[in-house]
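Notebook entry, structure prediction.
Reason for the run: the old model in the group folder had no record of what sequence produced it. Starting over properly, with the input documented here first.
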Amino acid sequence: MAWAIRVFGQGHRVLMAAAATTTATSTATKRGRPAGILKVVPVSPALGEFLGLSEVSRTDAVKKVWEYIKHNNLQNPSNKKEILCDAKLKTIFNEKDKVGFLEIAKLMSQHFIKSG
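New structure, fully documented this time:
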């Protein structure tokens, strides 16, 4: 604390609190179970066939779709915000030929089955 005396003078106290350390998983869990977008939920048959899984979290599904897009070079080279859908992507994106990258989450939301 010698530096604090040099900076603030002899008569001033320096109050320092430890920074709160949280992680995305600790803030998004309830009693050890994932919640929200990290929760594993059942998916529609179309998305299930695309991913090869019957249940997946939203984050993992979006991640796998983006991996597919990048692996197959489906981003429009002149406009990186646009995805050029192939036959496999059309099955989960309502048969659209082109999809804006901001539409992806909206179009995928219909594939996650709500549990009562």
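Summary: Residues 6 and 12 are 10 Å apart (CA to CA).
The old model has been moved to the deprecated folder.
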